[in-house]
Design a protein that fits this description.
Number of helices of chain B: 10
Radius of gyration of chain A: 24 Å
Helix content of chain A: 25-40%
Number of strands of chain B: 0
Region (Disordered) (chain A): 1-35
Largest interface: A-B, 61 and 76 residues
Strand content of chain B: under 5%
Largest sheet of chain B: none
Organism (chain A): Streptomyces galbus
Oligomer: heterodimer
Helix content of chain B: 55-70%
Order of helices and strands of chain B: HHHHHHHHHH
Strand content of chain A: 25-35%
Number of helices of chain A: 4
Biased composition (Acidic residues) (chain A): 1-17
Protein name (chain A): Carboxypeptidase regulatory-like domain-containing protein
Order of helices and strands of chain A: HHHEHEEEEEEEEE
CATH architecture of the largest domain in chain A: Sandwich
Number of strands of chain A: 10
Distance between the termini of chain A: 36 Å
Number of domains of chain B: 1
Biased composition (Basic and acidic residues) (chain A): 18-35
Radius of gyration of chain B: 18 Å
Shape of chain B: globular
Largest sheet of chain A: 10 strands, mixed
CATH topology of the largest domain in chain A: Immunoglobulin-like
Number of domains of chain A: 2
């Protein structure tokens, strides 16, 4: 897929002056250096085996029956920082169809609100294994402990459907 | 894994083929890792970003619009998560480079086993030297090369998604950066 190598040609002439034009020999030597560097990366900075294993196990998270509630607001990205507030809570909003899930994460816990208000059983996922269970009351409110370190998602079972929020780091 | 197999592997994984998923992990996790490393996150943050990217990929598996570009999807998701970490500055702890050099993985890859043999000591020295020089490149070059040297090599589309740079600028930048690295090595008498 290196289909744009030719793009390198024209720019080179101006970068380094007329005495250092890219030649075929250069290209060969550069490829060799890149290959050597690739080998060095495989030796000195490989994907940790533990992470490889976690990615393989993540296959269990694929669930065609659940609807995905997309992250549509993340205070980390979308909010204007408030001067003087050192550690503001993380506010997240997820959407799918008619359902909105607002979540607030602080070091003290997790708080949320389903809209339109409705009861739901909620599981706090932190990976392929079962997580803590919460319940949203008839006003759609739920609270729980802070999610464990690492990525988390909420699996919500409302009256007639299962919704999973997009994975993210708290 | 050939990059041209990605679309078919994604489809097989959607259909329930765990081996296809494993092949995707084998083929694309070095790319995801390279994006994490290119952004110089702390180990803890890097590990979480890597996991988030794979969890999201698994979650979106049957819904990815262009399955043959799953590598770009993963690279872009990883970049996005890296930028979030960098944005929440309190989490930002630059990687301690010498520590990377000293790190020895418990699981020996074939490449690592090469280093075990005594006659390979010289080569080992050279690998470390090369890596050291690579680490002292300018930030843009270090980032670009770190992603380019993922194994198997990523496509330019994937590199573009990983770093938010135009596909057309990758070729020229790559040449410049490799030329610069070679100049450093020559200056140190290593070439």
């Amino acid at each position: 897929m290196r289909d744009d190598d030719e793009a390198g040609g024209s720019g080179e002439l101006f970068d380094e002056g007329p005495f250092d034009r890219g030649t075929d020999e250069d290209a060969g030597e550069q490829s060799r250096t890149e290959d050597e560097l690739r080998q060095a990366a495989a030796i000195l900075d490989p994907v940790p085996a533990e992470l490889r294993r976690i990615a393989v196990e993540a296959y269990a998270l694929h669930d065609l029956d659940a609807r995905i509630a997309e992250l549509t607001f993340d205070s980390l990205v979308d909010a204007i920082p408030v001067r003087g507030v050192a550690d503001p809570p993380r506010m997240l909003t997820f959407h799918t169809g008619e359902l909105t899930v607002d979540v607030e994460v602080t070091p003290h816990g997790l708080m949320g609100q389903l809209l339109p208000p409705q009861e739901a059983s909620i599981e706090v996922l932190s990976g392929p294994r079962a997580g803590a269970r919460l319940t949203a009351d008839d006003l759609g409110r739920f609270i729980g402990d802070p999610p464990p370190a690492g990525p988390f998602a909420l699996r919500l079972r409302t009256g007639d459907e299962v919704v999973v929020t997009e994975w993210l780091r708290a | 894994m050939d990059r041209s197999d990605v679309g078919a592997l994604v489809q097989s994984a959607v259909d329930g083929d765990a081996a296809a998923w494993k092949a995707l992990v084998e083929g694309l996790s070095p790319l995801v890792w390279s994006v994490v490393r290119a952004h110089r996150l702390s180990d803890a943050d890097g590990h979480e970003v890597y996991q988030t990217a794979w969890f999201r990929f698994a979650q979106h598996l049957g819904r990815i619009r262009e399955p043959d570009k799953a590598g770009s999807w993963l690279a872009s998701t990883t970049r996005h998560e890296c930028l979030k970490v960098i944005k929440s500055a309190k989490r930002l702890t630059p990687t301690d480079d010498p520590q990377v050099l000293d790190r020895v993985s418990e699981d020996r890859t074939p490449e690592q086993s090469v280093l075990d043999s005594e006659e390979a000591a010289a080569q080992s020295e050279r690998v470390r030297f090369l890596w050291q020089e690579f680490e002292t490149l300018g930030e843009r070059c270090r980032q670009l090369l770190r992603v380019l040297i993922a194994s198997p090599p990523p496509s330019y589309q994937e590199v573009s998604a990983a770093l938010g740079i135009a596909v057309g600028s990758i070729g020229p930048m790559r040449q410049r950066c490799l030329r610069r690295l070679r100049a450093k090595l020559i200056a140190r008498g290593a070439l």
